[in-house]
Amino acid sequence: MKILSAAQTRILDEGTIKAQGITSLELMERAATALLNWLLDALHPAADTPFHILCGPGNNGGDGLALARLLHQSGYQPQVWLLPTEKSSADYAANLQRLPTAVPRHELHARRLPTFPAGAVMLDALFGTGLSRPLTGLAAQVVAHLNESQALCIAVDMPSGLLADAPQPADSAVVQAHYTLSFELPKLAFFLPQNAEFVGEWELLSIGLEATVIHKLAVDNCFIEENFLVGRYPKRPKFSHKGTFGHALLLAGSRGKIGAAVLASQACLRGGTGLLTTCIPQVGYDILQATAPEAMCLPDPALGHLSELPDLQPYAAVGIGPGLGQEEASREVLRQLLEAAKVPLVIDADALNLLGANQELLDLLPPDTLLTPHPKEFERLTGEPARDDYHRLEQLRQFARQRRCFCVLKGAYTALATPDGQIYFNSTGNPGMATGGSGDVLTGLLLALRADKRLSACNAALIGLYAHGRAGDLAVQQTGEAGLVAGDIVRFIGPALQELADSLTHIVE
């Protein structure tokens, strides 16, 4: 699913109007109808539910006015609050004229701001994607007042004051919505941690925007959903054997961190690798043999850390990092791997920290290497703290381009940057996955997928991110968020991947 800029959103609206032979007012009516249906289906409001709709002078306010009319026609008694203006959009003016006289309308004033009761539903239709600068004056006062209310706040398209695809100035006035109802496609702002308190839970409402126009718009940000992955994860051939799906090598573990090696090994096995060899320090030999018996265990000569790189000839992909530690000998193992590897690499955890501490090693990264840092590890890789979430995204994009690698920035809506400058945001996962070992599980799963020669580097990364989050979503149904541990994610990798394998069959049928 494409993530459009504010400018592209306007192009899409105009293209839809032209392609479908409708007016902008008719498109606005679609939006208002979609909003009404969501309110009725999601909230099941009683007939006396107080609806308060705050409308700005542009098309966002026009959506709000049209919604007020439809609520009134549906038997509710909404009230409309208008931001005073000398100039409004044509569609706003048309919907204001259409508003029944029975719907109370009030003009907002700085000295007489309305009080909204706790049981009220407040619709924020002040400003949408067209906003290009921070709110000031009365608009900023109104937003600050709304944020003090105990009413349920629902933003129409965008929380007023939030910029769709640009950094938010510090201390600017932005509505803190409980829900944001956007149309057809998400906005980049929805995926950034700094905006979470404003956006709340967001949902997309379809209003029939023209698919051919969407297809033609070039973007460098996308949202990964199951439909996006249909056909990318192939079913297993009837006559396949263990060699069909590759032999993976995992370099992991050190004294006190053998659990990371175990979790990554288990995830790699559940991720479908044909064979797995885990190279581990001697201190972890018995532990790994007992906890991942399907893996072949290759003990390092050293007791507590990895000190030698094994022969790479048998392997289809190599993963390094979970629990590795940062011993000088382990750094040398990483260096030798980067210099010698002719197969795909997955680099995580302590291996990333070694890269960050020894920047010259970054120049040795083979093309299409897959790195999986969390934000702090990524900062060590770049050597530059991010000014804000937008800056971090651009750092991520440039890093992947410069290093010709695939880089995963872990977190809510985990982002994958590709060597051609694309960024994909993942749709699956939940807060319960913010637990030790979750990243080790992701590394093992990605290693399994990179060892499968049927998958491109990009498809392996996309599938791995989605399936990892989906496994967490399946697990949390049994454990709850607080009770979720990394081992629970491992148990549901198989079902998550099977859903993707079955998705093409379902569509064909």
UniProtKB/TrEMBL annotation:
<keyword id="KW-0413">Isomerase</keyword>
<keyword id="KW-0479">Metal-binding</keyword>
<protein>
    <recommendedName>
        <fullName>Bifunctional NAD(P)H-hydrate repair enzyme</fullName>
        <ecNumber>4.2.1.136</ecNumber>
        <ecNumber>5.1.99.6</ecNumber>
    </recommendedName>
</protein>
<dbReference type="InterPro" id="IPR004443">
    <property type="entry name" value="YjeF_N_dom"/>
</dbReference>
<keyword id="KW-0521">NADP</keyword>
<keyword id="KW-0520">NAD</keyword>
<comment type="subunit">
    <text>Homotetramer.</text>
</comment>
<dbReference type="InterPro" id="IPR000631">
    <property type="entry name" value="CARKD"/>
</dbReference>
<feature type="binding site">
    <location>
        <position position="439"/>
    </location>
    <ligand>
        <name>AMP</name>
    </ligand>
</feature>
<feature type="binding site">
    <location>
        <position position="323"/>
    </location>
    <ligand>
        <name>(6S)-NADPHX</name>
    </ligand>
</feature>
<feature type="binding site">
    <location>
        <position position="124"/>
    </location>
    <ligand>
        <name>K(+)</name>
    </ligand>
</feature>
<feature type="binding site">
    <location>
        <position position="440"/>
    </location>
    <ligand>
        <name>(6S)-NADPHX</name>
    </ligand>
</feature>
<keyword id="KW-0511">Multifunctional enzyme</keyword>
<dbReference type="InterPro" id="IPR030677">
    <property type="entry name" value="Nnr"/>
</dbReference>
<feature type="binding site">
    <location>
        <begin position="410"/>
        <end position="414"/>
    </location>
    <ligand>
        <name>AMP</name>
    </ligand>
</feature>
<comment type="similarity">
    <text>Belongs to the NnrE/AIBP family.</text>
</comment>
<dbReference type="InterPro" id="IPR036652">
    <property type="entry name" value="YjeF_N_dom_sf"/>
</dbReference>
<keyword id="KW-0547">Nucleotide-binding</keyword>
<dbReference type="Pfam" id="PF01256">
    <property type="entry name" value="Carb_kinase"/>
</dbReference>
<dbReference type="Pfam" id="PF03853">
    <property type="entry name" value="YjeF_N"/>
</dbReference>
<feature type="binding site">
    <location>
        <begin position="59"/>
        <end position="63"/>
    </location>
    <ligand>
        <name>(6S)-NADPHX</name>
    </ligand>
</feature>
<comment type="function">
    <text>Catalyzes the dehydration of the S-form of NAD(P)HX at the expense of ADP, which is converted to AMP. Together with NAD(P)HX epimerase, which catalyzes the epimerization of the S- and R-forms, the enzyme allows the repair of both epimers of NAD(P)HX, a damaged form of NAD(P)H that is a result of enzymatic or heat-dependent hydration.</text>
</comment>
<feature type="binding site">
    <location>
        <position position="160"/>
    </location>
    <ligand>
        <name>K(+)</name>
    </ligand>
</feature>
<comment type="similarity">
    <text>In the C-terminal section; belongs to the NnrD/CARKD family.</text>
</comment>
<comment type="function">
    <text>Bifunctional enzyme that catalyzes the epimerization of the S- and R-forms of NAD(P)HX and the dehydration of the S-form of NAD(P)HX at the expense of ADP, which is converted to AMP. This allows the repair of both epimers of NAD(P)HX, a damaged form of NAD(P)H that is a result of enzymatic or heat-dependent hydration.</text>
</comment>
<feature type="binding site">
    <location>
        <position position="60"/>
    </location>
    <ligand>
        <name>K(+)</name>
    </ligand>
</feature>
<feature type="domain" description="YjeF C-terminal">
    <location>
        <begin position="225"/>
        <end position="500"/>
    </location>
</feature>
<keyword id="KW-0067">ATP-binding</keyword>
<feature type="binding site">
    <location>
        <position position="260"/>
    </location>
    <ligand>
        <name>(6S)-NADPHX</name>
    </ligand>
</feature>
<feature type="binding site">
    <location>
        <begin position="128"/>
        <end position="134"/>
    </location>
    <ligand>
        <name>(6S)-NADPHX</name>
    </ligand>
</feature>
<feature type="domain" description="YjeF N-terminal">
    <location>
        <begin position="9"/>
        <end position="215"/>
    </location>
</feature>
<keyword id="KW-0630">Potassium</keyword>
<keyword id="KW-0456">Lyase</keyword>
<dbReference type="InterPro" id="IPR029056">
    <property type="entry name" value="Ribokinase-like"/>
</dbReference>
<dbReference type="InterPro" id="IPR017953">
    <property type="entry name" value="Carbohydrate_kinase_pred_CS"/>
</dbReference>
<feature type="binding site">
    <location>
        <position position="157"/>
    </location>
    <ligand>
        <name>(6S)-NADPHX</name>
    </ligand>
</feature>
<feature type="binding site">
    <location>
        <position position="374"/>
    </location>
    <ligand>
        <name>(6S)-NADPHX</name>
    </ligand>
</feature>
